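Anyone have tokens for GDSL esterase/lipase EXL3? Sequence:
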Amino acid sequence: MRFLITPIAFCIVIISNLSKVERQALAQDSPATAPKVPALIVFGDSIMDPGNNNDINTIVKCNFPPYGIDFNGGKPTGRFSNGKIPSDLLASKLGLKEDLPAYVGANLAPEDLITGVSFASGGAGYDPLTSKVASAISLDQQLELFKAYKEKVRAITGEDRAATVFSESLYIVCIGSDDVANTYFPTPLRKRTYDVPSYANLLVGFASEFVQKLIKMGAKKIGVVGIPPIGCVPSQRTLGGGIFRACATPQNQLATLFNSRVSTEIQRIKTKFPGTRLVLADIYGILYDIIQRPKNYGLEISAKGCCGTGKLEVSVLCNSLTSSVCSNVSKYVFWDSYHPTEKTYKVLVDFLYEKYIPQLI
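Reply: yep, here.
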């Protein structure tokens, strides 16, 4: 009969052979090096998508060069950036792992599953119409994937351990930019029925519904990332900023209106579900400052991205056949016309980690 030595059993054998002094030293060191939470679980759009769109029928993809030129030796994985994205950087800061994997189409090892995954899908929005138009994985579909994920984790850890994992894990929701940039302003699909304030209310309603579903599924530590100054990303400057490509004011107004109103709704939800840690992580101000004063953050160029002209190229339009790449990506706030560079993401994640994560873990 063959006996399998699991990683946990192997560690027990090693520790049992240590001296008393060595075991005490290990016990003293472990709190500092132990992960801050059991897992990081992410829902959202292209900002947090590490490759979930690779295996679905959508044109919103980036699993080809030059995407990923600075990721693990230059591998395009489906991350919408030159390197790591916020979910990767946050997982690392939490002490979980260096990269947070995609759930869809991935053959993940048990240790990767139980420490967290991302369900985010490029092109998704709070508004179901946004996800439908982009053929992205909607938030409701992301929740269905989460249900399947929970069953896999239970099979690995057992019911009791899984319950602890799901209640103590950190959940991040980062979505909403595509509702503004891809649904409301460039199409008549919602403008016929909703003005800007009423569309903001519609998005808040969808956000509230999603967060409450997540709480009912066991989440107790949830960070909701606000919509950034989407009118200032290069593509929106080109499309809505006039001849001088200024920040598109209406887009930013919708973003700030949503952020203000969803903040109020979050407070209401917290009252409804006592014991839930729920925070709005507002990145509007910090990203706006990076864009307006890039040199303060070790950057230089914010009005265009590194890929191609940097004014419109994103996803399939940013490719190695038709798009050149800037000579020094470390100078750029944006990688393509929509998504920040890894360097910018590091600034944002450091800000989020210091200001908001302590309220959640």
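The chain has one domain: 40-284+342-359.
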